[in-house]
Amino acid sequence: MPDYIPELALATPQWFGISVATVDGRYFEVGDYSRSFTIQSISKAFVYGLALEDHGRDYVQCKVSVEPTGEAFNSIMLDQSTNRPYNPMVNTGAIATTDIIKGANPTERLKRILEMIRRYTGHNHDVNMPVFLSERTTGNRNRAIAYLMLNFGMVTEHIEETLDLYFQQCAVMVTAHDLATMAATLANGGVNPVTGERALDERYVQDVISVMFTCGMYNHSGSWACKGGLPAKSGVGGGITALVPEKLGIGVFSPPLDARGNSVRGVGVCRDLANDFGLHVFDIAKPDHDLEAFMATQGADSSDSPDLMWDKT
Amino acid sequence: MPDYIPELALATPQWFGISVATVDGRYFEVGDYSRSFTIQSISKAFVYGLALEDHGRDYVQCKVSVEPTGEAFNSIMLDQSTNRPYNPMVNTGAIATTDIIKGANPTERLKRILEMIRRYTGHNHDVNMPVFLSERTTGNRNRAIAYLMLNFGMVTEHIEETLDLYFQQCAVMVTAHDLATMAATLANGGVNPVTGERALDERYVQDVISVMFTCGMYNHSGSWACKGGLPAKSGVGGGITALVPEKLGIGVFSPPLDARGNSVRGVGVCRDLANDFGLHVFDIAKPDHDLEAFMATQGADSSDSPDLMWDKT
Amino acid sequence: MPDYIPELALATPQWFGISVATVDGRYFEVGDYSRSFTIQSISKAFVYGLALEDHGRDYVQCKVSVEPTGEAFNSIMLDQSTNRPYNPMVNTGAIATTDIIKGANPTERLKRILEMIRRYTGHNHDVNMPVFLSERTTGNRNRAIAYLMLNFGMVTEHIEETLDLYFQQCAVMVTAHDLATMAATLANGGVNPVTGERALDERYVQDVISVMFTCGMYNHSGSWACKGGLPAKSGVGGGITALVPEKLGIGVFSPPLDARGNSVRGVGVCRDLANDFGLHVFDIAKPDHDLEAFMATQGADSSDSPDLMWDKT
Amino acid sequence: MPDYIPELALATPQWFGISVATVDGRYFEVGDYSRSFTIQSISKAFVYGLALEDHGRDYVQCKVSVEPTGEAFNSIMLDQSTNRPYNPMVNTGAIATTDIIKGANPTERLKRILEMIRRYTGHNHDVNMPVFLSERTTGNRNRAIAYLMLNFGMVTEHIEETLDLYFQQCAVMVTAHDLATMAATLANGGVNPVTGERALDERYVQDVISVMFTCGMYNHSGSWACKGGLPAKSGVGGGITALVPEKLGIGVFSPPLDARGNSVRGVGVCRDLANDFGLHVFDIAKPDHDLEAFMATQGADSSDSPDLMWDKT
Questions:
Q1: Would you say residue C312 lies in a domain?
Q2: What are phi and psi of D298, to 5 degrees?
């Protein structure tokens, strides 16, 4: 658990939930899949989609690039030639996309983000106030990032308002079930498979999935793309979401994190699912295994030590 | 044309050929698709596959990582924590994979690489001797890279032998037709669609395609993955190869390069094909256009200035 | 003139004043030596001395290193192993030293800095309010620096208060005559040669002079140490101060700046003085020229274009 | 002892010698001051002087800058805007200055370097063949540096010849007594105080001393300039040389090194001498202590553990 968000230290390491949602609306779930936690950086992928809807590809591209970076997720570095953040999956880029979310005032902007998440999950969501306040209090690195971007004219002057919105969206409460639905919505071309509601303009689905694939797992993204082969996004709350285009969405919740801030068991579950079921997007000889049997196996492991279940990379 | 390989300056800017090969063995071709040129960096993707066959994933992973890098293709930087090259698509990584290609002596090692390319294309290939000698003479940056890796024990002591093999594989003569067949072979799970011969062990096809997708277009890879959405690899000889898994392979030849070393028209053709035909790997709402009609359009443009045809990014 | 401080753009390029003060209290002066301008970064050297008096060498050393850096003066980089600013002559380091200046409240802290400058010059100084407000408004890069240091626990939480004090000390009004006296005070072991008042504890004189020598001229410091050979500090207000230990202090005022932010004519005057009079601290065969004759020469040039008088380095 | 030069591992940690030579030809010496060891990087300062004599300041400046760098001594980094090494005290810069030492062939060039050192010490010097061969065998990082500079046209094509000369000059055998005489020669304006022979053109003495002051102690140079305040140069053979302009030269020999490659006891002796005798070049209130008494004290400590005698920074 990251020590810069003291509230997250209260999580129980044993919590472990998996949910898989197919694009035709079926779920395979096990363990703590309905336990709530804060979405954290997973929100970055979806807020990026909303920014694209609000402003279109050309404008958003002026504010944030889509290049992977070897830097850590909280690096303060900007692309030196354009002063843009490297991509919307790192803090710099997510603050830049949050800054341009439309709305007449802070309340309306937050409501638009919550309403966007509602379209993906099919129900309303709360913001965890203690986590929000905790991140706001300790968020001086993000404050430095914001002022540096302001210095380059890349964000507006309402730094604290933008940071509040950024910390609020990170503190939205979700479940592994929700994350699976959100990913399945992307896998389904932007339409929620259960409600049938469109959550993201069809044109931008490929933008969000692409940047999840190349940049979603921090400075582990390249290895992840090669070994896991699933577009994915993790958050320091212990959640991870991944998807197989046109097939299914995955949500995992398990608080213990590796050094890069990815859920140890979450990474393991996604990799195992990808390998066992031939889900790697570039795996051409796809096997045909039994998803329900896989989920049953995971359930048995739920009480084990995560360090033993999944190796740390 | 890159000034560090004087031989390449002899190319005619107007040359322009496109070839598309489907996994069921059909070709759609136009212009200079049967004109020979040096494969250059496109070889890196395929030599990486051979290294995986020679040593397996675990060993190769100790020699070269698979992380994208914001550095230029000829950067001398290594991953500081492991002293590994960032990925096999940049020079450092390609020298590292070349170093481990098996063979009793330099001749046999070169023969194994040429034989590997033969399996992909279905016919034998020559090495362009003037280009090879030209690159060897001016290859001091690659020499520096090799000695730096030797200092860290990442390559063997036969620096000049390894560099010769590296420069030779870059000087292999291919056509746009060949590149289309090579890409279609990957798209077909490693089996040449025309000859039916296996060119790459099924297990490693996803490794090669993944690293083409995340790292294949130098420090433009992230934008390429988002906008083009095709696993691809370009070379400073003016060639570019791209593929749609399970569908088709693309080969383009057009010598004028952009600042990053990618063929200007090659990038444009791949992007247009991807957009017009919904080939982006994460484009879920795939349209259904007429490939033959597209190729006819391209033919008409063959005499135009590339600067007007394709914008430079 | 730096565009990030709009007020400074009002300066007249032709202004040009030189003052040389000896440790026995004589002055050689010419041109606009009594015209006031803002001290800007020259204050950094003297505030560093005050921080040393307030806390001693060991404590100050925990807050700021004394290593030269190849980075620009406004770089946001910190020493990665200790999170300390590289040295007190760049913005990061100066904000760190300003943060630890003692005083019960902001007013008292500013008074202590003004009182310290008074001891060096022998008279009271004003803060230029428009320049202060101008820098405060546009100081978002310094705000980013401060929050980044706060994130590492290197400065206290009163960011805006510290930045105000930093911007105020930069906006103190001085003349070339004052700068010569201040430098002569350091050259005289910390005692003002005219008033006889001690301005800096004898123990810390060598600290201030050393860091001026190695870090005083931004990322030009190494060349300056080799070619000019005088401990010096410049400011974007067009001032520059330099000294010859045990001999004299120099103050120059001329607004046009080079790309690094150093006064073009100021650098030229110091270098000419150093070379013509053998003032380089490591020039062992010191010639013996006529300082009054030199100053007369400079006077004649005062109306010339600075671009012709001094090459840009 | 550095593990990249296996021969140096044979040194005895207890060896400890100090020599102080005044510009009027007196010596104060204790311990192993006449024991021979390899000069290593200390040669860089003197070869820089020879390069200046061979080509003048303007030409040498095109080949190597004089800016301090935060990088380690063996960094491969060059100044990105000019492709020059940062300064002649790091390996890149020393290889660049070695490359331009005049001479009709390798033998003559080595002879000119040995003859130059002879002028400084008053007697002939040997090259330690096993150390030379050892460094040549393991010198792949320096080989990488040389090829990178060749790639930028900063050195000539005779890489192995230049590296041989570089490794040979590093393997020249000297004593602490020699180092004291060499430093005293610089302190005396380039004239050997004992023989009266000129070792370095008067014009370039300040260049050599300046770059020793700002860059001589690797990435510890800034702290050294502030705390020690003596122009100095260390070598991984355990030697260190330092000087007080117009006063004296110091040579210390003690093999145990700190993490930066500086002799632990050597740094300590120089700092103690500087502090106890007010030798800091910017210490204006210079005390007047008894040098002979100091040397007697040092002698008593010669058998102690270096770790206890001198703290490691």
A1: no
A2: -60, -40
Selecting among D205, D211, D236, D252, the annotated active-site residue is: D236
Distance from CA of A93 to the nearest CA of B (A): 14
Q: What is the pLDDT at residue B303?
A: 43
> Which residues in chain D are closer than 8 Å to B147, comparing Cβ atoms?
140-141, 143-144, 147
A and C adjacent (3 or more CB pairs under 8 angstroms)? yes
- Answer yes or no: is pLDDT of C39 > 70: yes
Kindly report which listed range (A190-199, D26-35, D111-120, D213-222) carries the lowest average pLDDT score. Answer: D213-222
Can you tell me which residue has the tokens 């931004």?
Answer: C218
Residues of D with CB under 8 A from a CB of C: 65-70, 79, 86-87, 187-190, 202, 205-207, 209-211, 213-215, 219, 221-223, 225-226, 229, 231, 245-246, 280-285
Residue type, position B110, single letter: L
Regarding pTM above 0.90, the answer is no
Q: Give me the mean pLDDT over the D111-123 stretch.
A: 98
8 Å CB contact of D68 and C222: yes
CB neighbour list of residue B61: distance below 8 Å, 6 or more residues apart: none
pLDDT band for position C307 (cuts 50, 70, 90)? very low
- A218 CA to centre of own chain: 11
Comparing alpha-carbon positions, the chain A residue that sits nearest to B217 is: A67
Quick count: other Cβ atoms within 10 Å of Cβ B2?
A: 15
D313 against A245, higher pLDDT: A245
Query: B248 near B29, Cβ under 8 Å?
Result: no
Q: What is the mean pLDDT of residues A154-164?
A: 95
Q: How far apart are CA C273 and CA C289, in angstroms?
A: 10
Whether residue D218 lies in the annotated active site: yes
- What whole-number distance in Å separates Cα of residue D303 and Cα of residue D293? 18
Catalytic site residues of B? 41, 44, 166, 218, 236
* Each residue's pLDDT tens digit, B204-225: 999 999 999 998 887 777 888 8
The CATH code of the domain that includes A242 is 3.40.710.10
Q: What CA dihedral angle connects C174, C177, C182 and C183, to 10 degrees?
A: 130
- Contact partners for chain D, using 3 or more CB pairs closer than 8 A, are B, C
Picking from D143, D146, D148, the nearest residue to B76 by CB comes out as D148
**Which residue of C76, C141, C147 is in closest CB contact with A143?**
C147
Q: Name which of D100, D170, D94, D172 is nearest D138 in CA terms.
A: D170
Tracing tokens 């207890």 back to the chain, one arrives at D14
Whether B47 is in a domain gets the answer yes
Question: Using the beta-carbon criterion (under 8 Å), do A214 and B207 form an inter-chain contact?
Answer: no
Q: Which residues of B touch A188 (CB under 8 A)?
A: 284
| D276/D220: higher pLDDT | D276
| Residue partners of C272: CB distance under 8 A and separation at least 6 | C294
- pLDDT given at position D23: 95
* Rounded (5°) CA angle A130-A133-A135: 105
| Domains identified in chain C, total number | 1
Q: Which domain holds residue B73?
A: 10-305
Residue B120, domain member (yes or no):
yes
pLDDT tens digits for range C134-185: 999 889 999 999 999 999 999 999 999 999 999 999 999 999 999 999 999 9
Per-residue pLDDT of B62-74, as tens digits, reads 999 998 876 677 7
Express each pLDDT in A180-200 by its tens digit. Answer: 999 999 999 999 999 999 999
User: Does the residue A311 lie in any domain?
Assistant: no
CB pairs under 8 A between A and B: 124
